[in-house]
Amino acid sequence: MAYVITEKCLGEQYADCVEVCPVDCIYPGAYKAEPFMVIDPELCIDCDACLPACPIDAIVPTVENDPAWAKINAELAPNFKNNPAVPPRPAGDPPRKPGNKLVR
Ligand code: SF4
Ligand code: SF4
């Protein structure tokens, strides 16, 4: 089991989730030429810290919530693992995608 970052993060990459993960298993990278972030299912301990940290609710708590994006997280994690960290966006920075809404 592992938490999963979903399509909402694509192009957003707020990175607030990275700072709260106790096992450093959230990695930045690019997917389909857009900034993205994935959770490494090999390391995630299901602690729930990241989910309430995401300003646009891009994280879901189980693979079953979004199997397609869970597969993408798992496939990209080894490639993203050693990418340099990205700084979080400023608090309240509006979403770049029209379908996304700030929820916190
Ligand atoms: S906080 Fe949300 S939007 Fe930002 S990188 Fe994490 S999952 Fe993506
Ligand atoms: S659930 Fe916990 S361990 Fe898993 S990615 Fe989120 S913060 Fe990290």
Summarize the structure.
This protein is an alpha+beta fold. The protein has helices at 16-20, 67-80, and strands at residues 4-5, 26-31, 34-39, 59-60.
Walk me through the structure.
The protein has a single domain, classed as Alpha-Beta Plaits (2-Layer Sandwich), CATH 3.30.70. Helices cover 18% and strands 15% of the residues. It contains 2 helices and 4 strands. A hairpin with a 2-residue loop joins β2 and β3. The longest helix has 14 residues. It is globular, with a radius of gyration of 12 Å. The N and C termini lie far apart (26 Å). It binds iron/sulfur cluster (2 copies). The site of one iron/sulfur cluster (SF4) has 14 residues, from loops.
Quick one: biggest sheet? 2 strands, antiparallel
Q: What is the CA-CA span between the terminal residues?
A: 26 Å
How many strand units? Answer: 4
Number of helices: 2
Please tell me what the overall shape is.
globular
- CATH-scheme architecture: 2-Layer Sandwich
Helix content: 10-25%
Stretches with pLDDT under 50, minimum 5 residues: none
The largest sheet has its strands arranged as 1-4
At the fold tier of CATH, the topology name is: Alpha-Beta Plaits
Query: What structural class do helix, strand and pairing data support?
Result: alpha+beta
Total domain units: 1
Q: Return the string of H and E elements.
A: EHEEEH
Furnish the topology, listing elements before pairings:
Blueprint: E1 4-5, H1 16-20, E2 26-31, E3 34-39, E4 59-60, H2 67-80
Antiparallel strand pairs: 1-4, 2-3
One iron/sulfur cluster binds next to loops.
